[in-house]
Amino acid sequence: MFKLQDFRTSRNVCEEKKLNFINIYKTKWDEIHYKSDVFRYRIDNLRERIVDGKYLLQLNPHRSTKRRTPEQIHDICQPFDKNKFNFTKVSRDEIIFTFTEDDDENEHAILVNVSPISRYHSLLCPLLKRCLPQILTADSLQLGIDIIFLSDDRDLRVGFNSLCGLASVNHLHYHLFIENNVLPVETVKCNHIKGPVYCLSDNYPVPAFCFEVTPQTVNPSGVIFKLIEVLLNKSIAHNIFITSGQRVTGDSKGEEIVRVIIWPRKSSSGAKQLSAFNVAVCELSGWFPVYDIHIFEHIHAEELESELKKWKYENFAELCEEIKELY
Fold it and tell me: Which stretches make up the GDPGP1-like C-terminal domain (predicted)?
């Protein structure tokens, strides 16, 4: 078990005794992937295609046919059910490592995703043994932001799917991805709403809120969570993406910052999903794991955007007015 402060960050790179988060993470993931049988399929050399110069497609047919059947979700605040599958039931071989923050009572875990979207796809499970439902908390959001900063790796992303937002397991978890392509959502310009709150520009297919976070930002999770609470109180499904990106003002001269992007969305409860791909946090970011080879080879940007738009929250303008009252 590690402590969070054991890892080296971009702000203490001179401390050679500190551990490199990404190196440990990748080394252990590869070891599990190639030397054990916990994965449902191997993930090597995925075919890629860039559509319209921005949307990333990756062909991964096994993700559709060999993954665990998702849990049926009907409420974004559905209680945890110990009788259903949860991450306390995984094999020890699936654990990349565990770590704590200030004390040994609050243990977090990073697990391989046994049905990965791409190489190094894993799960961050905050307070694993507390068996919290898949409802975002301010503390877990801060943990996701902290991991982005301590990794000091532009390729690392953190994603969250709420219940009714295509979360497949009702046990608190975030997705960890490593992807070297720049995604559309990381460079799209943003419009200012009020205070620290921005939204993606109107030319992005699905409206979303965006916050800019730097190492100097005070209590970012507390600031952002005020918006999340509105979504929870109104039972609005949502997806969240934490990633390095351009400044929300569009100033490309400055250093990259961290964007925390929040999509309110239509509920996926009871909805029929596509056989080619589903619309969760990856797809909303402009990254499409595709299951069908014909669609992978022939789909156009207009079709991708049309599918994304089906899941946008229709009353986004009204929601923006309500959010203004918080800041």
Answer: 203-325
Burial 268-281, CB ≥16 within 10 A → b, else e = beeeeeeebbbbbb
- Residues whose CB is less than 8 angstroms from the CB of residue 101 and which lie 6 or more positions away in sequence, other chains included: 3, 4, 108, 143
- Position 74, amino acid: H
pTM above the 0.85 mark?
yes
Collapsing DSSP to helix, strand or coil, 132 comes out as: coil
Angle separating helix axes 220-233 and 138-151, nearest 10 degrees: 140
Higher pLDDT, 160 or 256: 160
Distance of alpha carbon 205 from alpha carbon 109, whole angstroms: 34
Sorting pLDDT into bands at 50, 70 and 90, what band is 272?
very low
Q: How far apart are CA 224 and CA 261, in angstroms?
A: 10
Distance (Å, whole) CA 11 – CA 17? 14
Question: Comparing C-alpha atoms, which of 221, 217, 218, 216 is closest to residue 240?
Answer: 221
Q: What residues act catalytically?
A: 173
Say if residues 170 and 87 touch (Cβ distance below 8 Å): no
Alpha-carbon distance of 207 to 313, in angstroms, equals 8
Cα(3)–Cα(108) distance, integer angstroms: 10
Do 123 and 104 touch, CB atoms closer than 8 A?
Answer: no
Measured CA to CA, the distance from residue 169 to residue 134 in angstroms comes to 7
> Given the DSSP bridges, would you call strands 95-100 and 107-112 parallel, antiparallel or unpaired?
antiparallel
Residue with tokens 């400044």: 247
Q: How many CA atoms lie within 13 A of 56 on its CB side?
A: 21
Average pLDDT over residues 120-137: 96
Phi, psi of 266 (to 5 degrees): -65, 150
* Other Cβ atoms within 10 Å of 102 Cβ, number: 9
Q: How many C-beta atoms lie closer than 10 Å to residue 198's C-beta?
A: 21
Give CA angle at 179 (173, 185), nearest 5°: 80
